[in-house]
Write a structure and sequence with these properties.
The chain is of the alpha+beta class and about 300 residues long. The chain has 6 helices and 19 strands. It is about 20% helix and about 35% strand.
Length: about 300
């Protein structure tokens, strides 16, 4: 039971709820996930099982894609429809005004992390402070929104849909909140569906119901994806069988003897033998002129 299983997370499940279910279905305690989705959100949640959990902190920072709904004329403490209403305002704008503002929120932008988030301040999660009624100063972070498009509207209800492609760490509800502030009427997120994460899309996902059915048939393990698919953002190199054995046993390789090895110090490299078997991640050490072992994944 080693590999990656992508789940289409249902609404009202936390990411840890999904992990708990998958522990039972996969019959292993070694299960983790690659990136938290809020309970109200749905969509792509890659699950790591067995030895693949050792890749959690090594997965490259992939861009993500979302479909989000929002409503104008309201603000809440959580920046989404499930929070406590802070203010209601009249709405005098529509589709044209929203589309005119989207370029301002595309490209490199600064975001202030919301209080209801997992960001830490002095060792405490912001959402823990927010639940105590405490608001603290936060530093704005630079994120990148690659594409931002209006994909649906119900102007009479002040409700709209967005398609978003963005860098990791982007808060979609904050993006919507800031858009509402710029429009002068406020806005809250009403739905969120992640359609792509860690290089995986909804096409790669199973629902929990499908996972349960496959588990009952004893075929769920057949849907596990190899861990190196989650690491495909790193360059791959092929080594000789002798080098492969040495590397898998923890031995560093001379960079000069590894074909097409990158020259960037600190770069991660996926190491394969001539038959395409994956050994693990190597770390380029320019000073020592070695490809050192970062993590072994082959059994």
């Amino acid at each position: 039971m080693n590999g990656i299983l992508c789940i289409d997370k249902p609404q009202d499940f936390t990411s840890f709820d999904v992990v708990a279910v998958m522990k039972r279905l996969l019959c292993t305690r070694k299960v983790g996930h690659t990136g938290t989705l809020d309970p109200m959100a749905t969509g792509v949640l890659p699950i790591l099982a067995g030895s693949a959990t050792r890749a959690a902190e090594l997965l490259p920072s992939h861009d993500k894609e979302y479909e989000a709904g929002f409503r104008l004329g309201i603000t809440t403490d959580t920046q989404d429809i499930w929070g406590t209403v802070m203010e209601k305002r009249p709405v005098s704008c529509g589709k044209a005004e929203i589309e005119a503002l989207l370029p301002r929120f595309t490209g490199g932008i600064l975001q202030l992390p919301p209080m209801y988030s997992a960001v830490k301040k002095d060792g405490k999660r912001l959402y823990e402070l927010a639940r105590q009624g405490i608001e603290v100063e936060r530093e704005a972070r630079k994120v990148t929104v690659f594409t931002l498009a209006l994909t649906g509207e119900r102007e009479e209800a002040g409700e709209y849909n967005l398609s978003i492609s963005c860098s990791a760490g982007t808060y979609v509800r904050t993006l919507i909140h800031d858009l509402g502030q710029a429009l002068g009427c406020g806005a809250v997120m009403t739905s969120l569906r992640r359609t792509k994460a860690c290089g995986f899309s909804l096409d790669d996902c199973l629902t929990l119901e499908e996972a349960r059915a496959l588990s009952e048939k004893g075929t769920l393990c057949d849907r596990l994806l190899p861990v190196d698919l989650g690491l495909s953002g790193y360059q791959a190199v092929r080594v000789t069988d002798a080098q492969f054995t040495r590397f898998r046993n923890g031995g560093a390789l001379f960079l000069s003897r590894v074909d097409q090895a990158p020259k960037t110090d600190g770069a991660f490299v996926r190491v394969y033998n001539s038959q395409g078997q994956f050994a693990g991640l190597g770390l380029v050490d320019e000073k020592a002129q070695e490809l050192k072992v970062k993590r072994i994944f082959s059994e």
